[in-house]
Amino acid sequence: MSNNVSPVGYPWSAFEGPNLGYVMDKYDQYLQAPEEVEPELVALFEQYGAPTFTDGSAPVQTATNTAPANFEKILAAVRLAEEIRLHGHLAADIYPLKDRKLDFSHIDPKKFGLTDADLVALPATLFFQNVPANVTNGKQAIDYLRSIYTNHIAYEYGHVVIDEEREWLQAKIESGALNTPLTTDEKKAILNRLTRVEGFEKFIHKTFVGQKRFSIEGLDTLVILIDELNRLSQEAKMNSLQIGMAHRGRLNVLTHVLQKPYDMMFADFAHVSNEYFLPTDGSLKITKGWTNDVKYHMGATKIVSSDYTVKLAYNPSHLEVASPVVTGQTRAAQEVTTVAGEPQHDASKAMAILVHGDAAFPGQGIVTETLNFAKTEGFSTGGSVHVISNNMIGFTTETYDSRSSVYSSDPAKGYEVPVIHVNADVPEAVVQVARFAFEYRQKFGKDVLIDLIGYRRYGHNETDDPTVTNPETYKIVPKHPTVRVLYGEQLASEGVVTAESVEQLDKEIYAEMQASYDHVKEVGKTKEPIAIEMPEAVEQGYPTVDTTTSLDNLKQINEELLNWPQGFEPQNKLSRILKKREEAFETGKIDWGHAETLAFATITQDGNAVRFSGQDAQRGTFSQRHLVIHDKNNGEEYTPLRHISDAKASFAVYNSPLTEAGVVGYEYGYNMENDTTLAIWEAQFGDFANMAQVMFDNFISSSRAKWGQKSGLVMLLPHGYEGQGPEHSSSRVERFLQLSAENNWTVANCSTAGNYYHLLRRQAKMLGTEGVRPLVVVSPKYLLRHPLAAATKEQLAEGTFQTVIEQPGLGANPEKVERILFASGKVAIDLADRIKDGEGFDHLHIVRVEQLYPFPQQKIADIIARFPNAKELVWVQEEPKNQGSYLYATPYMYELAEGKKLQYVGRKAMSSTAEGDMDAHKAEQARLIEEAVAAK
């Protein structure tokens, strides 16, 4: 270990003679009956093991079983040192406003019955194996520890379980490495940065009075922190730094970290199109949608070099939901998916910085959902640096109302994440903390959390008056000097700069900003606003794409999927089920899971990687998929789709953690970063999507319109009424249809495995194009093995995705058809099952609406036109009348009816989604099917 302090070996080095014999006897007793040993000694034995010398050898007992008088002092001193390490943070100088009472009770020597004389009499080796310089006795050792643990940086790492990590953290902290002085140039650079950060906020505050900006002031050193992490990432030869954060400080980070020019930022406030000021060298990339969004939701990409980019993610008002999105983007930036087999993951290629609000971190469950990804196979990123941008208040809510924990950072401790608290008014400490956190991430590949503690100079936004709700805090804030002022005074006192140069720098930077704004005003006088139009590729909808493949190729794929390695033995029942796919392929009985697997194989052959996640996605909730096979003898895993001939891209399927919002956000982010990978999320049951509604609302349905951000994410939502009760029947398709507009996504409810196969292939063909959009698939349960939903090999090889399918066996005598039924998904197969070959149903025709949005209105109109005597158009659905697709489809159907009667057949309007009793379900299902097919 390179550091000069190590915890290994102590406290035994302080014991000798009778003391040593006493401890050894107690250790023997501890091994036999630990309950009879003093709790303090038990704690030492549990932490440090058997008494040993620093070289690891066992000491030789040389004494009797009686403890000398100073044994209790030794033990008390060891306990005091441990209390400083564990609870020194409670007494640390980490609050800039000094408005929090510090707690020294845990680290007071008097609590342990120790005097200065007692401590002086003890050796420094009692506390350290390698004693720090200038520490010669126990009193100096305790003073040293107090100086380390109660200064402007405070540490919590006792919850870290792995000894190697915990000992590394302790050694690094106690070595004094975090107190390394900065160079004169580094100090001047920090002062310059702080002057720009503060000057930017002052200029906007004065120039654009009353406009919201969610100022960084009080946490100015957040920019210093991100700057340092950015520098370290480049130094480590990373390719990408991904940043996620909410509103506060975003404009400042965009300006000073992403280097969005001052005139671009001021143009946003002055309502002048900022495209006029975009750097012409291509170093900054921004996207916008046709509806646009408020300025403090926008992101950007900084092209630092051909090998390194910095990205700040676009973010909605929901503070924390960007965290899993950015984590997914980071994983995508770390992976190579252009080679067949498993994706090649290298966590050293990219890193995420996730900036959280102090009220949101303990308040929003999405935070712990994201933390939980850290060590999982499909979602780890080698560690994110989390930063709590801690202004000690949530909107108007004081900490005692917003959380039940001591610190807002406390939820992270459950995931063994080291926590470093730092005073935001001490810039040099902030830099040292950034270096420490980065080094830990690089060494251990784990998350680390920096709690940057500052304050908020104004209200939640600049139009709020915080004295109304937080009067005590805002008696202090106006009197408190800014960090720029404090640091300028410090450097002047050190002789690094003069007081006059500090003020001159402030004036020069302010003048630079004024010049930029003057430029904006001049441009605004002569240039018209630039209107952003919906891209033509989006407006026109999906083009017709070729999703065919050769029959010979499909046959070879089918054989390879069943060609397991020599000696590999799947579970017997599963082996028989999968082997039946050989026969099914030839006899036209290709079921849903079979067709899906064939689609994935052909997609990787076409050069698009596939990434599939969800709870139990590998097997499939309904045991229909089996993309990963387990050897019955040793549990070894085999993924056939990683061994397909001519595949040009990777395949991955992951059983996700039991979370929806976090995983959906993660997969959305992954697809944003890697836009040629078919990223798929599957809900275990359709109703589980309820827990991800924030992602559908804020990102997936609207990111293109708001921010110009393209996504081709696929969401599979098992849906269908089989009597499994209210929660496991509906995927709430009505919610997705309500969000449907401007060709923002596709919503499909397929009735056959073949149509689903081509739908997936069509989606993959659109990846990386201007017209790509997300895909919502209302996927079945009951139909997974239904013979009427099965496909033939010819349908897969030669077919295409059909937005509308007419029921075979009906409509042969168009003049006799009086009633046309429209149905989507499983209920269409229920209807098909009821009419069999169509005999006796000449009055009827059935149209399956396979694509609900965009609604295939013209195709349906063409079908209706073929039946001149049709009197009724009937929308048939399983869902209650106020749910499902009926209310969405009704306006379209009224236009198509042209005087024909429009009818509804389905369940009545209900507050619940379905019946909870199986018999009631069967009766209601039978009623609606009979009502639909009846002649009138």
From TrEMBL:
Q: Which reaction does it catalyse?
A: N(6)-[(R)-lipoyl]-L-lysyl-[protein] + 2-oxoglutarate + H(+) = N(6)-[(R)-S(8)-succinyldihydrolipoyl]-L-lysyl-[protein] + CO2
What protein family is recorded? Belongs to the alpha-ketoglutarate dehydrogenase family.
User: Where does the Transketolase-like pyrimidine-binding domain start and stop, copy by copy?
Assistant: 590-786
**Species of provenance:** Lysinibacillus alkalisoli
Reading the lineage from the top rank, the first entry is: Bacteria
Q: What is this protein called?
A: 2-oxoglutarate dehydrogenase E1 component
Q: Which GO terms describe its molecular function?
A: oxoglutarate dehydrogenase (succinyl-transferring) activity; thiamine pyrophosphate binding
Gene name tied to this protein:
odhA
What's the cofactor?
A: thiamine diphosphate
Q: Does the keyword Amino-acid biosynthesis apply?
A: no
Alphabetical GO CC annotations of the entry are:
cytosol; oxoglutarate dehydrogenase complex
The EC category is oxidoreductase
Q: Tell me, what does this protein do in biology?
A: E1 component of the 2-oxoglutarate dehydrogenase (OGDH) complex which catalyzes the decarboxylation of 2-oxoglutarate, the first step in the conversion of 2-oxoglutarate to succinyl-CoA and CO(2).
UniProt keyword Oxidoreductase, yes or no: yes
Among the record's GO biological process terms, what is one? glycolytic process
| EC number(s) stated in the UniProt entry for this protein | 1.2.4.2
Q: Which UniProt keywords apply?
A: Glycolysis, Oxidoreductase, Thiamine pyrophosphate
